[in-house]
Hints:
The protein is 23% helix and 25% strand. By secondary structure, it is α+β, with helices and mostly antiparallel strands. Strands 1, 2, 3, 4, 5, 6, 7 and 8 form an 8-stranded mixed β-sheet that branches.
Amino acid sequence: MRHSRRPGANSRQRGLTLVEVMVAMTIGIILLLALGTLFANSTRVFKVNDDFARMQENGTYALNAIGSDLRQAGFYGHIASFDVKMPVAIAVTGDCAAGWATNVAQPLSGFHGVTPSAAHTALTCINASNFIDGAAGRPSFILIVRGATGGAVPSAALAAGSLYVQSDPTTGILFRGDQYAALATPPRRTVLGGGEAPIYPYQARAYYLRPCSRPTGSGGTVCLATDDGNQPIPTLVRQELVDVAGTTTMAERAVAEGIEAVRIVYGVDNDGNGTPDRYMEAPTEIQFTQVVTARVSVLVRSPKPTNGYNDDSRDYDLNGDGVAELNCTDDGLPCNYHRHVFTQSFQVRNIAQRLALP
């Protein structure tokens, strides 16, 4: 049988005209551009938020590390003075200077505006290549703190190459963990009733800024211009005492990345009442024994540069005098990074309390 087709069925089936195709393509391109712009803006906002979150973390951690040591500076247990003696000589490998690590009589000191060569001369444990040479607006700094931590350690758990402090209200001793067993009583210190006085880990640290985060020169110890993916990240570091297979030695340890500048204003107590009478950035060694507060400011930059961003329009005040002294262009810093200043004040309570004693 033959099946007839309705006339005109094929005549109603036709494709899009050229005008319709062009209109559809135009609408599609506009939608794609809108989506692309939205995605790019979202990515940019996410990066900026992530940068500021990282800056907040690094700045907070840097202040916490410095502040914790400032609060503990000069803490040597129950003793009410700095009269801590070494019953047995202590050798420190790579010490920053002769007897530097064990100079308990100077719990706080530092340097302001020193060059890398001067820093190495003052503290030989600091490699000049690992020390940031500050510009006019961001002079370099070294902060030295010595003291014991607040957590007592039982004598059976002493590490051979670590240093410890034990004291009563009148006298204290500084010793290596492997020296304690051979000490008699005295020089071991006791509490009322003859029991063993608490033993606290002792630490000597020197904070400063290093020009890179992950050094690759000289076996991973010296900063090079090609470090951190050819974009060296300024980093807050510290020299500190470590136990290496039973040997007491100084070692450089990274604290926080992205710290471009640090300025510390010290509050000095001249009349011995435990409160600051004047503030200065560069106390003398004698004045450091009278420092009762410290105002620490850190300039933190974002981990990575931001394309199209220019920080040249912003100036930064690091010493709290209301006058901005740092600008990326004036001080030779790359201007395509976000930056923020974090500031916190700390009481150097062990020095303050001793000065206020009658």
